[in-house]
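dumping this here before i forget
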Amino acid sequence: LYSVFLYIGNIVNKQFQETKYMRGISINEIVENVVIDRRVKKKKGKSYSLEVERTNISRRSAEISVSTLSSMSLIYEKTMHPYKFLISTYRGQQVLIELGKRKKINKER
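structure:
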């Protein structure tokens, strides 16, 4: 959830700084660019084991993260048929700034 929110916020900020217009991003862009650590089933002999592997986020989990963020009113969807573009709200920007400050404070400790 955090990595998806951070990615949306960073891309939307970059778009706004470059063009003064926030086009937003689609779910496909999130799936292509957000990388997470996931447990993957690997076969060892006759049994299976779970190993941590860095992979792209799945579409289903990206959609769940987006719906959670929109229910918290941190992002909203702008529909341009056939696409849905995701844009962070003003409140979402405030939360991103606060998370950045807290991360910096924790690194200093």
